[in-house]
Amino acid sequence: MKRFCSYLLVVGLSLGFIICPIVVSEAASKKRIAVLYFEDNSRFDSPTGCGCIPGFIGNIFSSKKRWDLEAGFARMLNRKLVETNMYEPISKDELLDAMAVMTLSRHNLKRLKQEQRATLARHLNADVIVVGKIRQFNQERFRTSASRTLREGGRRAPQGPGTASYTAPVILRGSIHRVAIKLEMKFYNASGDLIAEPRISAVRDHTYGATKFASLEASMTEEGTNLTFGQTSDKQRRNPRPIVKPTELNEIKFASAQYDRTLFGVVTNEVLIKVVLALRDNVGPNFITPWESQPATAEKGEKDASTGTGGPIKGKIQYVDNENPDKIYVSIGSNRGIAINQEFDVFTKGKPVRDIDTGEVLTHLPKKIGTLAVSEILTDKVSVFRVVNIAEPLKIGDVVSQDTPETPAAETDAPEKQE
Question: How big is the chain by its Cα radius of gyration, in Å?
């Protein structure tokens, strides 16, 4: 019996030695991120909860903010970090425990020196420390309306059994809601040194236009058009997404699932995704986030520009941020013999080339939209480019080439088929 128990113990220990390294290596593959705080400098304070009323007027009616932006932004950023499956956000309890050990208050947290940040990172076992400032957070509304009454018949119109008269109002309404958010971020490494200070912003509009003639009403938003006939209630007329109405926003909790359905929520998620992208670009690792399109796979027989040795140097844009034209990541690396400040043309998908018999789209002609230049050679497969001049916004998958991309025979302008 003793021998059998000893055998089980040896087996258990062996399994433990086998399993433990796997768990440790899986945890070690994720970077631990400590989001310390967001400081609210937006002056967002409105009794409606939407930031539509200036601060000094809002203070007359209400001294309490509806939304806690500082706690909400930190909570939502941690969610985005989890979604990447590459970052592990440090929990609030872990942060509070470390602050207690170091006798730090929330007020002291915003005034840490380099040595204190390093000590805090050590207590948290953090790879990166993140802090942010909310510089702008507001929603503006631009509204216009016009009306006119159409009359047919009347007192002076000839009366008789075959005549009639009517009065029908025509009402035109339109509005634009615009949400703008601006952040100033700071990333620190485990030694407490500053890595990067990206400034990140996002703006989005929600447009609404409607025409009402008698009992017929047509409305249009970015989601499409809607036609209604007869009497419609406010509930039926209200556009479900995104939510922009102040009285509805007033009832929504910040950072909740319902908040994501508001225009504020859409822009907040956009700006925090950009924070995660900036974190990836500055501290690594290299990966495709859940919110980015996968680069198009090379067609069969197409030469890989990053490893090919013959022909013009050619690659594709892998990542682009139109608000930072000096950070364009292209799949052209050091193995192609490129040099800093070397210029390349950039092409996007142009006019379609159709089969002259069936009308099927066979391919697209390349369309030159600007010039990029090499600013930093990162590896043998990727480099950072900057914009020299550009006519259209850059997109992931656009071709960056030393020369004009060769156009296959199928892409040339074919003469019309002779009957």
Answer: 30
Q: H-helix or E-strand containing 143?
A: strand 128-152
Domains located in the chain, CATH noted: 28-149+168-282 (3.40.50.10610), 314-411 (2.40.10.410)
pLDDT digits (tens, 9 = 90+) for 55-79: 455 455 444 567 889 999 999 999 9
Residue 352 φ/ψ, nearest 5 degrees:
-75, 145
Q: Is the pTM of the predicted complex or chain greater than 0.90? A: no
What are the backbone angles phi and psi of residue 233, rounded to the nearest 5°? Answer: -80, 170
**C-beta separation of 405 from 350 below 8 A:** no
Which residues of the chain are modeled with pLDDT < 70? 1-28, 45-65, 143-174, 208-241, 293-311, 322-323, 325, 403-419
**pLDDT for 24:** 39
Amino acid in the structure at residue 245: K
List for the chain the helix, strand, coil content (%; round to 5): 25, 35, 40
Tokens 């092409």 identify what position? Answer: 347
pLDDT tens profile 125-142: 999 999 999 999 988 887
Instruction: Report which of 34, 28, 58, 33 is spatially closest to residue 44, judged by C-alpha positions.
Output: 58
Spell 380-414 as b/e; 16+ CB within 10 A means b: ebbbbbebeeeeeebeeebbbbbeebeeeeebeee
Q: Output the CA–CA distances (angstroms, integers) from residue 237 to 142, 227, 379, in the order listed.
A: 19, 10, 55
Dist. CA 127–CA 121, nearest whole Å: 7
CB 28 within 8 A of CB 88: no
**Strand pairing of 194-196 and 199-213?**
unpaired
In 3D, which of 140, 141, 161, 164 has the Cα closest to residue 152?
164
Q: Which residues contact 120 (CB under 8 A, 6 or more apart)?
A: 34, 98, 99, 102, 104, 112, 126, 129
